Amino acid sequence: MTLLLAGDIGGTKTLLSLYNATASGLECLAQTRYPSADWPDLAPMVREFLGARADAGTAPPAAACFAVAGPVQNGQASLTNLHWHLDESRLAEECGLARVELVNDFAVLVYGLPHLGPEQLASVRPEQAVAGAPMLVLGAGTGLGVAVGVPGANGLQALPTEGGHGTFAPRTAAEWRLSQWLQADLGVARLSIERVVSGTGLGAVARWLLAERTPDAPPPAWAADGAASGEDWPARVAKAAEAGDPLASEALELWLSAYGATTGDLALTSLCRGGIWLAGGTAAKQLAGLRSPAFLEAFLAKGRLRPVLEPIPIQAIIDPAVGVFSAACRARMLLG
């Protein structure tokens, strides 16, 4: 039995899983969700997780991979929201692990792509991928994650990026007004893409429309109730749009269009003829919207470069545990 330790570390929760690498794939043996803020560091959490299995006679993992929400440099990563500073060598020593790797949480998804099953995916745009071509993974969640996968002799190589922090480029008069309002609302001189193209951004689009359309009128019930209950804006907007509310529906369509345009821009940047995978918390929740003209036409609307994008397939990753699964895939690669 070859055991692998995989983790998906976020500001709110950390998911640790133990996998068995078999000839037919990866078998999840145990999985535990921890509130991240309850722990001073990752090492004691890992020791507790592994200790419970060691008591049952389980051998130490042969390799470990942890996906972290942020950039990784020289085997180290700092998580601002947790005040954790992670170091591969220290984790290996303190947890008794032979091999440890830290990977950006979107870059790690690249390593899982070849191993995803049909139950983990949903087709958005069913075209034909080009074997051996670059692949693109992006996803609107709390922010906008972006990574590129490049095939090589030893499998896929993940290239992490901070593409979500590029400058948001308005395409329409409405997007221009939105960008000006958001800059003032946030008190920033420059607006990044993820301020609009993210789950948080969906809520921002709705707040802008409310401010522009009904500045002196009471807000609709879904907005008023959301403010009173503390429920997050994106969930309120999506629920109201599904119920047919005109303003929420307009906000969702504008957001989907901006998401599609951004996906097309990134596809041109990476020439990802190997395919595009949409991940993040909104992928499964907004599957119908991602298949709609609002998203797809904006994706293709690149003038003379439209023919470059037309053959590229797009899939949505709908498995909420894909981060830890992909980390396990990477841990298996570390064994050589």
Notes on the structure:
The protein has helices at residues 42-54, 88-95, 107-112, 173-186, 199-213, 221-229, 233-242, 246-270, 282-285, 287-290, 293-300, 306-309, 322-334; strands spanning 2-9, 13-22, 25-35, 63-68, 76-79, 84-87, 100-104, 121-125, 135-140, 144-152, 155-160, 276-279, 314-317. It is of the alpha/beta class and 336 residues long. The protein has 2 domains: 2-116 and 320-334, Nucleotidyltransferase, domain 5 (2-Layer Sandwich), CATH 3.30.420; 163-317, Hexokinase, domain 1, CATH 3.40.367.20. A 6-stranded mixed β-sheet has the order 8-13-12-9-10-11. A 5-stranded mixed β-sheet has the order 3-2-1-4-7, sandwiched between helices. Strand 5 and strand 6 (84-87) form a beta hairpin. Helix 5 packs across helix 8 (246-270), helix 6 packs antiparallel against helix 7 and helix 7 crosses helix 8 (246-270). The longest helix has 25 residues, at 246-270. The radius of gyration is 21 Å and the shape is globular.
**How many separate helices?**
13
Could you name the CATH topology of the largest domain? Hexokinase, domain 1
**For the terminal residues, how far apart are their CA atoms?**
16 Å
Helix content: 25-40%
Order of helices and strands: EEEHEEEHEHEEEEHHHHHEHHHHEH
Count of domains: 2
Biggest sheet details:
6 strands, mixed
